Amino acid sequence: xxxxxxxxxxxxxxxxxxxxxxxxxxxxxxxxxxxxxxxxxxxxxxxxxxxxxxxxxxxxxxxxxxxxxxxxxxxxxxxxxxxxxxxxxxxxxxxxxxxxxxxxxxxxxxxxxxxxxxxxxxxxxxxxxxxxxxxxxxxxxxxxxxxxxxxxxxxxxxxxxxxxxxxxxxxxxxxxxxxxxxxxxxxxxxxxxxxxxxxxxxxxxxxxxxxxxxxxxxxxxxxxxxxxxxxxxxxxxxxxxxxxxxxxxxxxxxxxxxx
Length: 259
Fold this sequence. Notes:
With 259 residues, this protein is of the alpha/beta class.
């Protein structure tokens, strides 16, 4: 059997296995595979159409911008998987009451009062909103996990709404590790934060800056690092000087307590 007869069969098999990757004509009349990004407009349109036909999401999908769908596609690569996760995410948001969490909520007020998590007035050099987490203000033995989770959801939702106002719809998380001790190391919360970002705020994290990390934290990082997927690990940067940090955030935007 000649090449000309085998090639069409190979193309049909490839299309059946990888329907989201088109096969196009290359120069000279031969067939070639063209790699496309998972968040290409074709996939965005396909995801929107699937969600429009879904009884769970059909009503509100018309108000969802393309860039929101692109985040789900970048995180989950295929239209079917992005559809499944999007539906689960919307179900969780309604059940948890994300849009009903207000700053005057006692749980939010109690966490805001600690000062361990604040949103800075300025944005980073990419235009992303910044949350500064002062780690030594967190005491693992003196916290309510439900309250802390609610506060984290509130802050992520607030930051997400802020990021939607700019061209880049993700956020900058800045952990200040100065004066860190093991009483501040809350593995349960770290797992919860990772879960929230991956399941319910996909691709919202633009960069995670870990500043002033002491040697003591290196052992903690060895435990945490495997919990992150490769895409997220690439967004984490350890920063040890104001000069390094200024590559991400303007000096005027930084609290003077950092260095």
